[in-house]
């Protein structure tokens, strides 16, 4: 059985764009929407690509900006300038 990883983001204008980009890059992900935040669960791994987020927001995006919208995450993080990966035992 594959364990889920997750990320929870605030439902701000920028947060909704990031959520859309994450959902586009992770077809197995499930978004659970609440009034103030959205929790995204995905089996095994969840990837966030800077290019996809930039396209969705219509501007250059630095993955360090994710901390401004982030509520919490579950999993081990591996990141570089172009992608952030959340996985268990990555």
Automatic annotation (TrEMBL):
Q: Which domain of life is it from?
A: Bacteria
Instruction: Show the coiled coil region(s).
Output: none
Which InterPro entries does this UniProt record tie to the protein? MOase_MmoB_DmpM, mOase_MmoB_DmpM_sf
Which GO MF terms does the UniProt record name?
Answer: monooxygenase activity
* Signal sequence segment: none
One Pfam family matching this protein: MmoB_DmpM
Q: In which family does this protein belong, per the annotation?
A: Belongs to the TmoD/XamoD family.
* Protein name, per record: Phenol hydroxylase component
